[in-house]
Amino acid sequence: MSDAAALALLDRVIGEADVTEQDRETLAALRTRIADDAALPEARPSYRELFQAMPDPVTVLDYEGNVVDLNDAALASFDRTREQIIGRPIHQVNPDLPREHMVPVREALDRRENYLIEVTNRRADGTRFPVEVHSSRVDVDGQSWIVGVARDLTTRRGGELRYRELMELVDKGILIRDADDRVVHANAAAMRMFGIGAGDAVDAVFRREQWLVIDENGRELRDDELPPVVARCTGGVVESTVLGYYHRERRRLIWVSVTAVPQFAPGTDRVQQVMTLFSDVTALKRDSALFDRAQALAHIGGWEWEPGPDRLYLTDEARRILGRDEPLESMEALLGVLGDSDRRSLRAALDGAIASGEHVDLEVLASRDDGHSVWIRLIGENDARQVLQARLTGTLQDVTERRQDEETLRVQARTDPLTTLLNRDALLSELQVRLADPTQSGVAVLYIDLDRFKVVNDLLGHGAGDGLLAAAAKRIQHAVGSEGLTARFGGDEFIVICHTADDAERPQRLAQAIVDAFDASFRVHTEDFNITASIGIAVADGGPVSAEALIQSADAAMFDSKRRGRNGWQLFTARLAEKQQHRLELENKMRRAIEHGEFRLVYQPQVDLNTGRVIGAEALIRWKNSTLGEIRPDRFIDHAETTGDIVGIGGWALREACRQMREWIDAGVDVPRVAVNVSYRQFLAEDLVGIVRDALAEYELPGPALELEFTERVLIEDVPDTLRAFHELRQLGVALSIDDFGEGYSALNYLRRLPIHGVKISKLFVQGVPENASDVAVCRAVAGIAQSLGLDVVAEGVENDAQRECLRSMGIGVGQGYLFAPALQPDEIEARYGPLVETR
User: Which first-to-last residue range defines the signal peptide (predicted)?
Assistant: First the structure.
């Protein structure tokens, strides 16, 4: 390294903030000597004099991080020979440095900034010690060097530890705030003084919005008047100042004497942190008029009671809270404004405090002279300073607003906001209490489901649906009257609880009354709608039964009522119990079917009715259980929809169909596209767009290789979200179609808004073609609508040539059914359609 580089290095070291004045003077003298010598051709001392003069370890690196040179202090710190270090990467010399350590160093130096890091230095014998490394860049003759100066932090760390130990021993509260006013440390005394638990986040507890700070005159201080802020902004010490700190949430006031001392960054006049010392002076303020003023600000009054003469003293704020025209000068007078129960509770608490020193802490309801009532919280304790006679002192606080808020929240937590009936949680809680009470035998549950409500809700919108639900709730409640408890269980489902001990026929009678209440139509906007109710009844027979099990039994009976034609009620029986057991067994096995590999997909070809070519295949799910054998889709799919298991099953089917499509593409199978059904619940519950995107990426499929089939319900529900999701799917290139079009809601208005490419006509209509004129009319109407909107049409369930010809004459281009092929295994698809095959 040249003398110029040595001088540049020396300038960097002298400029470091924490170089001692003695070292700074020595190094400055050395710099003058080297500069003078450098001017003389005959005198060129080595820059090693500079190195050896530095008390701290100095290492010179090239810009790749390899060690070029180091002084003897650095050799000693690494405890290695020069030959073991020179030319090696710095992260090998000190293995505690990460391999990528040089990246942030170079980034900082390229910005002409110094780089500072605290690390451990590892000696050759494996011992470690903490160091602080300052890295600087030196440019000489077009080449950049990195100079690192390390300082041993062992002594500093020990000092910091002793400093913190000392802080914990003093009896004054100490808070340390950084330059951004964040609390970085609080000693044990401060934690106790401000009521902070060991597990509390200190900075969160001391957030400004948590505390009201007042001076001795009761004036609230602004942020810029707080002692730590003043000390930080001015750099001066704020001497003892008495302030009141009131915690808004805990409603606790303490008075403290505050001193704030700024602490500066080494070698600068910049405040690095502020130490605030607190002394608790609450006891000194308790009996003063200023304390009364502070209590008024916090809405807290004080009281003092001598039991012997029954003498009671109340502060002004306490008297204001109680709102009595005549002063209450005895505890008997205070007890007189309470109700009987609260009077007994307070008397017992006071007796306990006198007898055994127990604390008093309870809330009671007191009557005021203006006719209103006020909830007050009384806190007190026996004054230990009184030896000759007992005296209790404490606080009295108005907690009416909080109690009212709690009651409002309690009611809201138990009430359905739409119908004002009990909600699901409150209903379950009440039912559990009744079932657990041995004195209340014979509990019955009526499970009510509104028939056809979803159709009306989907056609008229959620606003009209909510109005219909509220009207239905009133009819149910009116029919039940005082003979039962009515709740909204969720959606369009209601539950009634009643007793049968005094009237065994009450459940059936109430059920019929509810059914009859729905005879009259409901007026929605300007139209009348007929809505009926299907009801299931389950009665606890006296044996142990949970609320969930009893409701589940009533639910099973309700489904049986729907199966029998709706608009009626059914009682849960042993036969229904057996069917319910079968459903539970099916549900349990279904939830393990994916992990056991019991599901599989078969594929039914979709054929161009004009050319006979296969244009795609629909993926259809099949389930074979080791115990139950082959299970028909109509047995488990609806059940999976009800339980929500369809979400997981549908996700598996989507990924499996994509995997199979990738396999066919690789094998040269001529099936351009695979269609997968998407459940409405799956559409709502998952990030469908993200799942589809991931599946396409995983199996490297182009978007047009996948088609998603949705039911008509998706057209109605959550229209903004549906539109957004459909547009994102179409951007992926995925084809979208509406399955079984014409069976459900027929929301034609939404067809033109959604970016779909086709509709599928249900086999319910196709099977009547061409003999049934109504089915022919439906198929022709769907085909006409689709054609006018530029949509493709697929006819499901095509089983003979007559149907194919009739459908083709309507302009329907694609068919699917046994005429072409049943649902096939993947290898059968490959065998049939490996080469280009036409289906006639």
Answer: none
